[in-house]
Amino acid sequence: MTLSDLIHHEPSASTLQRWLKKVPYATYLGISAEVHGNEILFILPEDEKLIGNPTLPAIHGGVVGAFMEQAAAFHLIAKMDNPVLPKIIDFSLDYLRPARLRDTYAQCTLTRQGRFIANVSITAWQEQSDKPTAIARAHFLIPEREADKAPAKFAGGFTG
């Protein structure tokens, strides 16, 4: 089953896990997801291979950013009426405190989804959700599905 096929199923915890397993970097990081009612909680497990600063030790900032970007993309897919694979346009990340070597969580909010562009806000934290380690905003291009594309109309009544 392809990722595109999986997208068209209801986003349960098991479906989200299957989606995540189709993305090699998400698998490498060990990202998992839980569904709590209408909310999705993404989890980056504690793993020494993710250390960027061994003195603290702290998770590498690039890993935190990648985790948050992956969470935003999967959250968007789960919330779309007609799911397609979105393409990242822009990602803005604010690091608020060091991400220590422990489990890290992320929750996303679909701020706005238009016909072609979607905006997602992401918050990552470790021990307390009211003390985020990072916040981010992501903008995605939503490509048209082949089935949604109308044939082009040309002068003279011909369609292509």
Brief description of this entry?
By secondary structure, the protein is α+β, with helices and mostly antiparallel strands.
Structure description:
The longest helix is centred in the middle third of the chain and has 19 residues, at 61-79. The chain is globular. The strands form two sheets. A six-stranded antiparallel sheet has the order 1-2-6-7-8-5. Strands 3-4 form a two-stranded antiparallel sheet. The protein has helices at 3-7, 13-21, 24-29, 61-79; strands at residues 32-36, 39-44, 51-53, 58-59, 87-95, 104-113, 117-125, 132-141. With 160 residues, it is α+β, with helices and mostly antiparallel strands. The chain has one domain: Roll (Thiol Ester Dehydrase, Chain A), CATH 3.10.129. The protein starts with a helix and ends in a 19-residue tail after the last strand. The model is unreliable at 152-160 (pLDDT under 50).
Keywords:
single chain, two-stranded antiparallel sheet, 8 strands, globular, alpha+beta, Thiol Ester Dehydrase, Chain A, 6-stranded antiparallel β-sheet, 160 residues
Number of helices: 4
Helix percentage range: 10-25%
Number of domains: 1
How many strands in all?
A: 8
**Order of helical and strand elements:** HHHEEEEHEEEE
Task: Determine the mean pLDDT.
Answer: 87
- Read across the widest sheet, the strand sequence of neighbours is 1-2-6-7-8-5
CATH superfamily: Hotdog Thioesterase
What oligomeric state is this? single chain
> What is the CATH class designation?
Alpha Beta
Architecture per CATH nomenclature, i.e. the level-2 architecture: Roll
Instruction: Tell me the overall shape.
Output: globular
Q: Major sheet: size, sense and barrel closure? A: 6 strands, antiparallel
